[in-house]
Amino acid sequence: MPDMNTAATINGVVIDDTFAEAFPMSGTAIQVTADSEKWALEAARSFTGFATSVIACGCEAGIDRIVPPEESRDGRPGMRILLFSMDRAGVVKQLGTRLGQCILTSPSSACYADLAGESEIDLGSAIRYFADGWQISKKFGDKHFWRMPVMEGEFLCEAKTGITSQGVGGGNLLFLARGSRQALAAAEAAVEAMRAVPDVIMPFPGGIVRSGSKVGGKYKGMMASTNDAYCPTLKGVTPSALGPEIGSVLEIVIDGLSADAVAEAMRAGLKAAVDLGPDEGALRIGAGNYGGNLGPHHFHLKDILP
C-alpha cells in the first residue's frame, strides 16, 4: 500500500508522497520509413500491436516519434519505434517476428537501425532467408543492408540494430479523479506531454491503462490481477487507497531507454495533469509500487515535482 502522506499540493492537485517502482529491461530502437506518413504509421502500428505488457505479450513496444523526411534515413516519412523485453533473448525474438510479419509485409516500407547500443542484434539478418536465396547483401560505407525481392518490388532493411541493457520499464503515474471524464482528461493531457520526451513510450492503448494490476492473485497461476485497492467499486469491501471523493482512476505506464528518460517523462506528465487542475482533471496523483522490494528503480514523485 502506498504511503498516503502528501508530498505537495500544486494548483489544487494533491501529489502523494509515494514512488513508482520500475524494472530493468533490454531495449532497442528501429526506424521505419515508407512513401507516405500514412504507410509508415500503418507499419509502425502493426509492429507495435499487442505489445502492451510483457506479462502476456512478450514485449512492450510503441512509437517514440514521427520522423520527418528531412531527418529520416532515406528522405521519406518515418516512425521511430522502441521495443523492450525482460532480456536480450526476448528482444531478439520479438524484433525478428514483428519485423517479418508487420514491416516486411507493409507497402513501400524500409527499416533501419535507430540505436547505437552496447552491442548489436539482427534486424534484416533475422529475416533475410525469406528471400529464398535471392537476398542481396550490400554495404554502404560502414552500414550493412539486405535487399529482399518482394512482389511489390524490393524490401531494404539494415542488417543489425543496437540493443541496450539500460532500459527501464514500469515507470507510472496514477490519476485519481471524481469521475471517469476527469480521470481521462488528466491522463490524456499527461500522455500528450510525455510524447514530446525522447526515448520513451507509453505502451498501453493511447498510452493509458484502466486495468492497473497487482502482483499475483487469489487464483492459482495468476501472475497479476486487478489492483483492488484502486478500484472505486470495491471501496468498503477491500483495503482501499481511495477516499470517498474518488470515483475513477487511470494509470500511465512508461518505458524508456534510460532511467533519466523515464523520470523526464513522468515530470512532464505530472506537470500537464497539475496544470489542468482538480475540477477538470485529477484530484490526486499517485504512483504504483510494491514496497520497493521488486524493482531497483524508484521514481519518487516529490523529486520530480513540476
From TrEMBL:
GO terms for biological process: formaldehyde catabolic process; one-carbon metabolic process. It is found in: Cytoplasm. Pathway: One-carbon metabolism; formaldehyde degradation; formate from formaldehyde (H(4)MPT route): step 4/5. GO terms for cellular component: cytoplasm. Residues 9-150 form the Formylmethanofuran: tetrahydromethanopterin formyltransferase Ftr N-terminal domain. Pfam families: FTR (PF01913), FTR_C (PF02741). Its EC number is 2.3.1.101. It catalyses: N-formylmethanofuran + 5,6,7,8-tetrahydromethanopterin + H(+) = N(5)-formyl-5,6,7,8-tetrahydromethanopterin + methanofuran. Keywords: Acyltransferase, Cytoplasm, One-carbon metabolism, Transferase. GO terms for molecular function: formylmethanofuran-tetrahydromethanopterin N-formyltransferase activity. Residues 153-304 form the Formylmethanofuran: tetrahydromethanopterin formyltransferase Ftr C-terminal domain. Homotetramer. Belongs to the FTR family. NCBIfam families: one_C_fhcD, PRK02114.1. Catalyzes the transfer of a formyl group from 5-formyl tetrahydromethanopterin (5-formyl-H(4)MPT) to methanofuran (MFR) to produce formylmethanofuran (formyl-MFR) and tetrahydromethanopterin (H(4)MPT). This is Formylmethanofuran--tetrahydromethanopterin formyltransferase. It comes from Aurantimonas endophytica.
